[in-house]
Design brief:
375 residues; mainly alpha; Serine Threonine Protein Phosphatase 5, Tetratricopeptide repeat
Length: 375
Amino acid sequence: MLFWIVAALLTLLACLAILVPMVRVKAHASADSDHDLAVYQDQLAELERDVGRGVIGETEAEQARAEIGRRILRIAGEGRGTGSSKSSRTGRTIATLAILAVPLASWGIYAVTGSPELPGQPLQERLTANPAENSIEELVARAEGHLTANPEDGRGWDVLAPIYYRMGRYNDSVVAYRNAIRLQGSSVTRELGLGEAIAANAGGTITVEAQAALERALVLEPQNPQAQFLLATAMAQEGKSAEASQAWRSMLAGLPTNSPWRGAVEQSLARLGEQPAIPGPSAEDVEAADLMSDKDRAQMIENMVAGLDQRLRDNPQDAEGWQRLVQSYVVLGRLDDARDALQRGLNALGRPSQPAASLETFAAERGVTLNGQAE
């Protein structure tokens, strides 16, 4: 009830703050007009006395009467305009009604759509309620209160760290991850989270601290694609395009064909102005065909190899693709085709060049050379 009394008083004061100046303007205008009229009347009386004593001539007296008369008429005209103006009174009436209508309409709308009977809900009471009824902000506040009282609860920091990150509170996320690692020990998930949080807190730049965390994650899980990708991104940010390209290409070669990271890697390579390696059948792919019937196996292998061969004709600068094609023909026993693929690959990559030399060495290790029969 006290709230409604205070609200009503504040509303009344706000309305008076607008209405009182409107009334005062008219009152002040009327008072000023009456004062001026009295002064001019006194001036006329004084003029007549001066004429009677002979102090002023009749001609000068007539001029003075005319001037005072004009001033009196002007004041009288202003008084009539102010006092009788229906538009002025109508405007003040409308303004007064509008000012009074605002709080009345507000109270009426709240009475219909609001919940005036709802009791107050202090924050502390909400935090001690059933957690299922809390919002995410209230749950975070609840966890923060718990960790303030129990700062060595590593489990609590571990739970709160990724929540901070999703809320955009990156600095708090960094602190939480560091506490979780200190109390719970290092893990791939925690180190990756710490690296991401540090980078996000730095505006997306993968700093030295972030790289250190990602490298620790990679030590714990050498083939972790997230750590590999972010470390390659760090190289690109530092201007080490060649190193970043090599890291992404190596990562791409080890990813499964259905990995969601393939798209991200290929986009990153495209931003560097390079084409990603063309996927093709490996020796394992061909050997896995042994589980199929002879006809199906032969058809599958032929389609895979033919597809790779065609893609290399469209994109002949893929050194890894030429190695896969040579390998595929060797596994199939098609050594003439393997030598032809070697020749085309060397021509495409250009001699002398490091990619061409690598392809020639790769083929020689599998018994394929250009100067003789396969060993």
